[in-house]
Amino acid sequence: MTQTAGGRRNQAVSEWLEQAKEDTDQWELVCPKDADGQPIDWRWVRSLDLAGGIGVGLAAVDNPQQNVHALLKRDYAVRDRVEAILAQTSTAFMTDFDRLVASYRLPRALAYANRRLNDEINLLLDRGVADGLWQVSYERQGRVTVPVLTAPAKVGDAPDTTDAGGAVNGECSDPAGMNLTLDVGESANGEGSVGDGMNSTFVDGGAAKGEDSVGLEEIQDRTARILNARAERRKAQRIQRESGAAGMARANLSGVASPGGASTFSPLSGNASSPLPGKSPSLLLENASSGTDAAAASSRSAPTGGSSPAAKQGDWRDVYLPGRDVDTVMGIDIETTGTDPARVYIIDVGFEFMNMASPRPADAPSGYVYEQPYYDAGDAYGQARLSFGVTPANARHGNGLIRDLTGIDVRERGSGEYRLFDEWPEAQTGLLARLTQQPYVAHNATFEHGFFMLNVAGYAEAYRAGRVTIIDTLPMSRQWDPGSAPDENHPYGDNTLEAYAKRQGALDPAHAERHLGLEDAHIMLVAMKRHLTTLRREGAGPWGASGRSGVGGKACGRRRW
Predict the structure, then answer these.
(1) Residue 81 or residue 142, greater confidence
(2) Could you give the angle at the alpha carbon of 50 between the alpha carbons of 45 and 54, nearest 5°?
(3) Closest CA to 323 of 525, 555, 551, 557
(4) How far apart are the C-alpha atoms of 267 and 271, rounded to whole Å?
(5) pLDDT in tens, 165-192
(6) Is 539 helix (H, G, I), strand (E, B) or coil?
(7) 64: buried, middle or exposed (CB in 10 Å: 19+, 13-18, 0-12)?
């Protein structure tokens, strides 16, 4: 029997998922513990059916004879276990200086299976609502928004039909992994803004059947508790490292005897003078121990020049700032069904090219028409828009928030008309080729980077090898744009793409950000070029005292373009 194209694609996906498990022996050497400090059972990882599914299965989800309480509890336990491993694999891979692990395909494979598991969990939540077992509200708990199960309304109670997140007829307004109140410009330390713990509630589901719920505490989503505890451990470890480094400085072990001069420590400031300007002893210690993230660490204390009227503290994002020689770049923006790359799908990718200094290529086609007719292509060229699908289970669950934000209804993207990005190797290969040809630019670039790590075959390997350079316009807004001055509503300045683009004249004040990949990439590059032109004229930013030569941006190792 002749195999269909779809059948051949499914076979290819199954083969790479199975082949990825061949790397478990290498991963066991470099990643013995997960992100919570627990030993990883790599034999269990090897036993997972990544292609067939690591959850209870959709047949069980739809079987009324199956106990939905037990099914959800089991799926949550598997997801927590897988995600604790995934949270550690990036660090393990980037600090594997002996290159014991050559490929990042196993984390990508685990993320592939985890997305399908997350779809299954959402359908189980939907089933519990439909069966009258619980109601689902979405609440901000520290760093993330999670679904919270509560007892259903009793018979005779008026159902709560309010839905601040846009849910219609039970359609999910905030899928697991979506952080509704995330403001990429509001985090001072890069670990996410922490609110009051419970500051947003969205109700999903209609009237219940009046049945009593059983053991809801056992099946609550533990994501917030896990991530918040993990962040507290990181904070304590950072304080301990810095305290130890300060103690070394006081004991004259951080450079007093070094040729060329001594280092001194001020107990009032907590900083040491050092042969490396702008770096404290704690950061020197971090640089020695954290490998590829050394530059990001050093940027926390280094002063940043620019045109901001207020003195702004250095930030870990500063390593993504462009240098004074930046020219040809590719701007890229992605739209996804949530914020967690291990749980959700890429559904829209838009990119284009622009030269920050040299003229636009004379032979590049002109006159591109964007979805928004008032966008002028200007110096942009090589525009491309790619649309992708979701699994049938994800489409069945729906996503009202993303529909309202982007206009993309995932309920219409679960058929064969739209291929899934994580199942389309040719699309991944093509995108990787473009990401490595020149620096790429994104606004809050760590978002795109996280999705590329777990979705694009070869990206993690290319990034570790120094073949990827990332520039971020968010720190440009924060450090070099006077209009981003802090106010009551934005303690660290308004650094959203929309606000930055409007301040730089790239987006008309009467219009809003479109939230589609290509259109957002375009206003970002226009804003970046106008901003750099101003900074060059003023001798600020990259041309200021703390500016860098070269293209700038973050890369593992440095290459010349």
Answers:
(1) 81
(2) 80
(3) 551
(4) 8
(5) 334 334 554 444 444 333 333 333 333 3
(6) coil
(7) exposed
